[in-house]
Amino acid sequence: MVKKKAAKTAAEADDGGSKLRFRSPAEFFAENKNIAGFDNPGKSLYTTIRELVENGLDAAESVPVLPVIDVVIDELSVSEFNKMVGIDDRERLDETLYKDVETGKERKRREAKEKREAKKRKNQPPDNHQEAKKQKTNPPEESDANMKVKAESQTQPESSMDGTQDLPSQMSSQPAELPSQLPPSEQPSQPSQPSQLSSATQKGSRGDVSTLSVFVSDNGIGMAHDDVPDMLGRVLAGTKYCVKQSRGKFGLGSKMALIWSKMSTSLPVDIRTAKAGCEITHCVLDIDISKNIPNVIVHEKLPNENNWRGTEVKVTIQGSWTTYRAKILQYMRQMAVITPYAQFNFKFNTPRAEKSFEVSFSRRSDQMPPEPEEVKHHPASLNQLLLKQLVSNLPGKTPLVRFLTRELSNIDKPLAERLIKELGETFSLTMPISELGLNEIRMLDKLLKEARFGKPNGECLSPAGEYNLRLGIMKELRPDLVATHAESADAFEGHPFIVEAGVSLGGDNVRNGLSIYRFANRIPLLFEQGNDIVTRTAQDIPWGQYKISANTDRIGVFCSIVSTKIPFKGTGKEYIGDDSPTIKQSVRKAIQSCCVQLKTKLARRAELKSRQDRSRNLKRYIPDVANAIMKFFESVKTPTVSAEYVRQMQTGVLTKEVLEKKLSQHVETSDRQNVVELGSIFGYVHEQAEFVHLAPRAETDMYSKPILLQVMPAGEGATQPPQVGIQFLESLRVIPEEPEIERVAAEDEKGTSA
Q1: Which residue from 421, 423, 393 is spatially nearest to 406, judged by alpha carbons?
Q2: Where are the beta strands (DSSP E) in 423-487?
Q3: What residues have CB less than 8 Å from 59, skipping those under 6 apart?
Q4: Which of 22, 40, 490, 611 is the most exposed place for a label (fewest CB within 10 A)?
Q5: For the segment 494-547, what is each residue's pLDDT rounded down to a tens digit?
Q6: Is 0.90 surpassed by the pTM of this model?
Q7: What value does the CA radius of gyration of the chain take, rounded to a whole number of Å?
Q8: How far are the Cα atoms of 70, 359, 360, 524, 548 from residue 476, in angstroms, in the given order?
Q9: Which has the closest alpha carbon to 525: 33, 161, 61, 68?
């Protein structure tokens, strides 16, 4: 029997029992969506927003125009979603089929757990028990919404740019309550009816999954009418397949958002786009997964009366807002750091009004980096396959010397002649590339890898720039000190790269220790931080040598790497491995250069502080010093050098008050110099303080410098109004001395009146 079965199986195989099948790129990525960052509903929502935002930035920078990116997320209720897809609302017939319904067994486990927790709290010390009791009891005057926001704010992380500060919190749905009409003895055997949420929410192990409408608009260059279906409905179709710095290169991002929409809601994507001076293109399309072609539903032109230019994309997907809320806002805030010349407006709408919010990341700079340039392949970045492709793209009659000089970078004609001569007699300058066989390609590839070439030119890259990086850090973190540095261009595997770094000390909501922020081609990297080259390099920096404590100081390390090819590790493009000595050395040098700047500033600040302390101590002893000098002059019987001072003291010209005034003026002069030096080093926070001119109250009160008026707004929920503090240094006040005639006349008038 076994032999017959084996023979039958072999026969089936010979007859074609196993068929050869092919899959389209769209079908492959739909089944392996984690490759593109669509691991789960929460990550899918984050990646969708990220890809659409970055497409908008690329479109605006290609004009070039200062980017304005609007992101609106609408959480749809059950009725809204059903109405959108044409499904009638209906009640559940069998509640026990649904996961969000608490069964009798689940209710028993929950009650047993609550009893154990209550018993544990009861056995706690009295102080902890009283504190827990106070926290459990809500004051009657506070609303439930305020209590929810307050409870959520206590659990927020201390990271500076997590995007969760000063925003209403998204709360998870609470366990459903059982009907109070049933007696306790009958409730365990019946499944509980959950409270109906206003949004289409499903309770799962990865948070609440809801239906969300994601809308992203930009003021970029727009898309051509005929290119829209392929640009957004065909996987691996794009305009970035070249040697050029770009945020995206695979042609996956927006298409994967459409694929995820098809997998989760089966709704198409809605696009409105227009180029300058052209009509508006309105396109509604889906994607045919098996054929990897767009399925166009609507493709029309609309009048563009306002001469609008840009792109609007709206896609409806399922996502977990509660689990990835912090990551999304953290991404938006870090994007505002690396692109301070862009305006980001973010809005979240939900049927629960207390959960809706809106936040804007304002533009801080109007200086945009130059647009990156497309370059030719460097000889060190080639391989045999790429060489074959380059040769096949040219006419067969093209001479070999022309191919080397025009299709590759860093090769001039004399060098090309030397290379061809090194290849042997079978090669010549006029040899057409059509005669390059497989062995000739192998020989050319081997020589290009072994020969010495100059480094690729870094002028084709477009880093953020030290100016923009510093502005972004100051705008979002408001640090006490910040230093930035940009390394010169270097090369890795034939691709140029530039490393920019910034190190900050202090700031708003920055935790103690190292807080590392990574950027690749001006994109924030939020995942796999521990394996990244920046993290491991920053942890190896000897911070103590720069008068910085890695444990107690609040340190922010910012590192941006731009290149024509970022050596990402893994499939999600989330981190850069530390196996590149060249990149690691550049990152280390950039961070250390920032630390050297901070060390100098810290040393000067300590020196100025010691000067101020010395000045303060001197002022304390001015009366004693003046009194001692007066007594010394009084004790001199036969003055020689001090004869003039003794005479002035005897005639009443030199008094104790005059000595105190002279000593104070000397100390104040030193004070004034320190103030000017401090201001030149550390500057002022212009968002919280401004210079105003106060008119003198009298002619005797004159001010040689404007007074620093600092407005300190009250916090949210505070009962006190904003406070205004005036910082006025006595050394900046100048009281002009009265002329001698006016002083005598004034004394005569006082004597007459007396």
Answers
A1: 393
A2: 481-486
A3: 218, 220, 221, 222, 310, 311
A4: 22
A5: 889 999 999 999 988 788 999 999 999 999 999 888 889 999 999 999 999 999
A6: no
A7: 36
A8: 19, 13, 12, 14, 22
A9: 161
